[in-house]
Amino acid sequence: MSDDLPQEFEEEYYQINRDILQSFNKFRPPLNIYRFREDVARIVTYFKVGERLAKEQTEELADMVDAGVIFVSRADHSVYVKHISHQLDLVLLDKHLLEREIADIFQMALTRRMQAFFEQPVKVVYDKVQEDVFTLTEYLWQDFSRIKALARRRHQEHTLPNHSVNSGFMGLFLHILRLADDYNKEPKNRQTFDRAALGFFLHDMGMSKVPPFIRDKTKPLTPDERQKIQTHTLSGYEMIARLDIKYAEVENCVNHHHERLDGNGYPQHISGSGISDLGLTCAVADSFCAMCSDRPYAKAMDPMAAAKALCDDVKRYPSEITKLLLNHLVNERR
Asked: Taking every annotated instance into account, which residue ranges of this chain make up the domain HD-GYP (predicted)?
């Protein structure tokens, strides 16, 4: 049915399927519902929020959904995004969402999930993080170009969950730019992709063990406070062991994202080729996303200026990765 709709209808409305309908409250859907009437070629209101569907209406609605004539308004985008973000696998089923809308859903869902994990870093909550990240990788594996919309989603405010999601998207973006051809040639490497994604999102997990008054401090850190910050990678490694995460990709992101090519990073002062490839990618993503957000002690930099600064810092950051980032931002502004 949607193929027969005028273009302007598709720009204003989402068509929903049975899976989406079943995710709503049966008698009180969370948003207005519209029906396409073929006899007058118009979309009309079927249900308004605040009302209650009768039992016979719920049955009729299901039949009309199957017939392809039930829609929700894109004007209710924020409500729909919030709803879908609580059942993230629905993104894989809804073929009428735009890529930018799906990016909003992933950003909201993963930020909420990371917040819950940092508040309660236990196995049952971690499993939910992994489930949502693997939903993201399933979405991206179908078409790697989809990462572009996600890479444009950056929280401006610097919080631990916000930064983890920003870095997750940017780390995946850089990783895909570098290795998409390799993945396409070797589909069996799908597990590697899944685990790399998990590493990008979890790289800063050890920061959850640093007291907020230190993380959010606006004045210079004392030597003791700086030491606590610099042990967050070790705390992250301990969390990996406690949660029984046996993925080398996650370990590399957690252990190496503060190591630098010249050996002046931390915690192990590894240099050059001793730093894992994923660790280097994560280092660039982590630094870039931190520089582009409003932190307690520093205002956000312009993304282009941040990328340029990383590109110029050839002693500490790998040029093959920072140049990819800078070139991408240059092309975006053309």
From this structure: 136-334
Q: Which two tokens stand for residue 229?
A: 């910050």
Q: Give φ, ψ of 49 to 5 degrees.
A: -55, 135
Domain ranges of the chain: 2-76, 98-333
What pLDDT, in 10s, does the model give residues 110-126?
999 999 999 999 999 99
Q: Note the pLDDT of residue 233.
A: 96
- Average pLDDT over every residue of 95-124: 95
Q: How far is CA 154 from CA 54, 118, 251, 310, in A?
A: 42, 19, 24, 18
* pLDDT confidence bin for 8, thresholds 50/70/90: low
- Distance separating alpha carbons of residues 136 and 89, to the nearest angstrom: 9
Fold classification of 98-333 (topology level): Hypothetical protein af1432 (1.10.3210)
Whether the full predicted model's pTM is greater than 0.85, yes or no, is yes
Burial code (b: 16+ CB inside 10 Å, e: under 16) for 240-275 equals: beebebebebbbbbbbbbbbbbeeebeeeebeeeeb
C-beta separation of 102 from 139 below 8 A = yes
Cis peptide bond prior to 121, omega within 30° of 0: no
At residue 6, the pLDDT reads: 61
* CA 200 distance to own-chain centroid: 10
